[in-house]
Amino acid sequence: MANVELRGIRKRYGNVEVVHGIDLEVRHGEFVVFVGPSGCGKSTLLRMVAGLEGISDGELRIDGQRVNELPPRSRDIAMVFQDYALYPHKTLFENMAFGLRLRKTPEDEIQRRVMDAARLLKIEHMLERRPAALSGGQRQRVAIGRAIVRQPKVFLFDEPLSNLDAQLRHEMRSEIKRLHQRLGATIIYVTHDQVEAMTMADRIAVLSAGELMQYDTPDAIYNRP
Ligand code: ADP
Ligand code: ADP
Q1: Is the CB of 44 under 6 A from ligand 1?
Q2: Would the CB of 21 count as within 6 Å of ligand 2?
Q3: Where is the ABC transporter domain positioned along the sequence (predicted)?
Q4: pTM of the model
C-alpha cells in the first residue's frame, strides 16, 4: 500500500497543454476513480503516474518519494489495460509470470504467487491455455492476475471493463471491489462510466478538459441536493 500525490501536474504535447496543473492525493488503501468524458485527460494522467508518459511540469510522489524521473519498472506500480495486453503465444501461467521473471523472482515464489492470484480470480483450472481460448472476461481476469502477482504498491486500471458486455461489467465491478478489500490495495481507476465511478470509488476525481473539477466521495458528488 502506498499514497500517491500529484502536485501541479501538467502535460503538454508540443505547444498544446492537455492537463492543466492537477493537485490531488490518493491515500493508502484508497480506491480512487478518475472520471470524465472522452478527451478530458484521464488516460494521460494515469499514464504519467505509470511512467508511460513524461510529466511536463509538477511533481509526482509515491510514499513521499519523487518519482517523476523513475522508469515504469522502478515505480512499484502495476497497470491493467483496457485491451488486456496479453502475450498471445504464452500460456496464462506464463502471461502472469512474465513480469516476475523479468525481475528475477525465484521460481518457487513465481509458482506460489501465480497460483494464489489464479485461485483468487477463479482461473486456476485454465492456466495452460492461451489467451485466444478465453472469453473477454477471462482475459481481463488474467490481466488483473498479472498485476496482482507483482504485489505492487499501487494498482492502475485504465478503462478495464469497457470491452466487456453489460453482464460481465457488472460481475467484474464486484470482483474488482472484492479484490480491493482482500488486498487492501491502493487503486487509481480510470473510466468514463459514472456507474462504475459511483459504485466502486472511495473518492471520485471528476475531470473536465484537463482540469480537476471535484474530488470527493460518490455520495457527496452525486447525491448532494
Ligand atoms: P481521456 O483518457 O480522458 O479520453 P486522453 O488523456 O486520452 O483523454 O487525452 C487528453 C487530450 O490529450 C485529448 O485532447 C487528446 O487528444 C490529447 N492527446 C492524447 N495523447 C496525445 C498525443 N500523443 N499527442 C497529442 N495529443 C494527445
Ligand atoms: P511487466 O513487467 O509485467 O511487463 P510493466 O508494468 O513493467 O509490466 O511494463 C508494462 C509495459 O508494457 C509498459 O512499459 C508499457 O509500455 C507496455 N504496454 C503493454 N501493453 C500496453 C498497452 N495496451 N498500452 C500501452 N502500453 C502497454
Answers
A1: yes
A2: no
A3: 4-225
A4: 0.90
